[in-house]
Structure formats: C-alpha cells, structure tokens
Amino acid sequence: MSSSHSHHHDHHDHDHDHAHPHSPPAPDDDDQYDRYEVLLQTAIRELLDEKGIITADALHRQIDYQDSLTPAIGGKIVAKAWLDPVFKKKLLADPLKTINESFELDITTPLDLVVLENTPTVHNVVVCTLCSCYPRMLLGIPPAWYKSIDYRSRVVVEPRKVLAEFGTHLPDDVEVRVSDSTADLRFLVLPYQPAGTEGFSEAELAALVTRDSMIGTSLPLSAASTPALA
After folding, report:
1. How many CB atoms are located within 10 Å of the residue 115 CB?
2. 128 has catalytic annotation
3. Mind listing the pLDDT tens digit for each residue in 118-131?
4. Contact 68, 141 (CB under 8 A)
5. CA distances (Å), origin 20, targets 126, 130, 227
6. Contacts of 103 (CB under 8 A, 6+ apart)
7. What's the CA gap between 148 and 136, in Å, rounded?
8. Sign (positive or negative) of CA dihedral 188, 193, 197, 200
9. Which listed residue (3, 132, 181, 213) is catalytic?
C-alpha cells in the first residue's frame, strides 16, 4: 500500500496536530459554521459598500456570477481531455490558458491552477489543510465536508481510510497522492476514464464526471450506473 503527500508549496505556514483522533463534525457544527459564514459575508459586504470600495450592485453581480459556477464546467473539461490527447497535453502544461481558449471562457485570476492526472497506478486527492482553498471557477461552491476540520486533518495522514468512507476503495498497488491547496494555488483532479466508455460522446462522458471525482474523493460514474447512457 502506498500513499504520499504532495508538497507543491511550503508557504501555508501552519502546524498540524495529528496526534489526536478527529471524529466527523456533527451536523450542528456545520450549520453553525455556515451561519457564521453568512454573517461574516454580510458584514464584509456592508463595510465595502459603506467605504465606497465596491457598490452593493456590483457586489451582487459578482455573487450571482459565482453562484452560476457549477461542477458542470469541470466535467466538460475532463470529458474533452479524455477524448482529445492534444487538448489533454495542453491542459496539463498550461491549464488556465488552455481552458480559456478551448471553452471561450474568460477566467481571469491571479491564482495558479495545476491539473493532477489520475492513472491506473496513481490516484490524486485534493485538500486545503489551512482553510478551504478550492477551484471555485471550475467547480463552484465547495461542499461542506471539504471545509470541515475532520476532512482537512485526516486526509493527509490516512487518505485510504477517508476515501473508503466516501465509498472509494483502491487496489493496494495504487499510489495515493494528497495535494494541499494554498492561498494562491488550486488543484483540479483529472480522473481516469472509466472502462467501457470508449465511443461515448463528449456530452455522455461529461455526465459521468462528478464534483467529488474532480476533488479525488470519488471515482467517475460508470456507464452501468447511468442507465440512460448504458
């Protein structure tokens, strides 16, 4: 059994106390965290408007844009990479430029993006151990569990156990690599194409790509699990 923790950047500047076991957060804890986020966002919006830094209308437009982002964008990118080797090569070399050009998008961000390719022998998982850094421009709003202390602390030290809790069981000879997002670096997992999907159209393949498979906690759907495509 093999697993490793990818240290792409060392400027997270925080310590991990993994000496104590972490139990899954209770639903009430997640609810309280979400309420805190709402209150904090409201306070920030009011302060920005009051100081004249950004108007409420402009801020609402930006929020509406962020809300429009969904994992379907990432799914289309993955499906194209499965079908088009040239696109895949460019995607791995220069993700944001390739995505903008190929999908006629205008993702302008100071953040760096790295695409992690899964293979028959390597499986990638993404986490942000400090907070909840996440490729929102491609996957939308992160799930609550991604932001939880339980996931952030445990996946770096016992990734196979965490994956199993998501229903993802990998062969012992598959290496698990955990990559830690940072304030200026985001990761997108390029899942391995499911067997038996050769000949599928780009739209059919995109329907198999889930949000969690692009985080690495799950595998893409199989053709058998989607009767409409089988």
Report:
1. 25
2. yes
3. 999 999 999 999 98
4. no
5. 22, 17, 44
6. 73, 76, 77
7. 17
8. positive
9. 132
Q: Which residues contact 164 (CB under 8 A, 6 or more apart)?
A: none
Task: Tell which wins on pLDDT, 66 or 111.
Answer: 111
> Can you list the alpha helix ranges (DSSP code H) found in the chain?
27-50, 56-68, 71-83, 85-93, 95-103, 136-139, 144-147, 149-154, 159-165, 202-206, 211-215
| Cα dist from 58 to 45, 62, 186, whole Å | 11, 6, 26
Residue written as tokens 């696109």? 87
In this prediction, residue 212 carries a pLDDT of 97
Q: Determine what percent of the chain is predicted with pLDDT higher than 90.
A: 60
Active-site residue flag, 133: yes
**Catalytic (active site) residue 181:** no
Cα of 154 vs its chain's centroid, Å = 17
Catalytic residue among 133, 153, 181, 213: 133
Domain spanning 2-9+70-225, CATH architecture? Alpha-Beta Complex (3.90)
* C-beta separation of 129 from 153 below 8 A: yes
Among 4, 6, 102, 128, the active-site one is 128
Domain assignments of the chain as residue spans, ordered by start: 2-9+70-225
Set 3, 23, 68, 131: catalytic member: 131
208-230: per-residue pLDDT in tens?
A: 999 999 999 999 999 886 545 44
Give me the pLDDT at residue 58, please: 57
CA 108 to each of CA 100, 105, 112, 199, 213: distance values in angstroms, whole numbers, following the listed order: 9, 9, 11, 34, 25
Active site (annotated) includes residue 131: yes
